Amino acid sequence: MGHCARPAFFEKAMEKQVAFIDINKCIGCGACIEQCPMKGIKMQVGWHSKVDSEKCIACGNCVEICHRHAASLIVIHS
Fold first, then answer.
1. Helix, strand or coil, per DSSP, at residue 46
2. How many helices and strands, by DSSP H and E, does the chain display?
3. How many CB atoms lie within 10 A of CB 70?
4. 1, 2, 3, 11, 16 from 7: Cα distances, Å
């Protein structure tokens, strides 16, 4: 009988959902910045937004407000 190197629950515990801004779609309007309750999105040089994954709570406000569909929620592994 084989043993798993890591239980499945451990793998899930290491996943986190965060917002991601596609710089090829972002026009730098700032709507996502205003909607973020954690103040986790900042404007970068070149007029596009960037998410601070440490502050992001994956609420989806940025995804809902972005009319260019530049924002999405993704899973990252820590």
1. coil
2. 3, 4
3. 22
4. 15, 12, 9, 7, 17
Dihedral through CA 7, CA 57, CA 52, CA 77, nearest 10?
10
Residue 73: what residue type? L
Please identify which residue in the block is written with the tokens 């993704």: 74
Distance of CA 30 to the CA centre of its chain: 15
Could you give the CA distance from residue 18 to residue 20 in angstroms, rounded to a whole number?
7
pLDDT tens figures, 3-58:
555 555 555 567 899 999 999 999 999 999 999 999 999 999 989 999 999 999 99
Structure tokens of 27? 């026009």
Joined tokens for residue 45:
């040089």
**Whether pTM exceeds 0.70:** yes
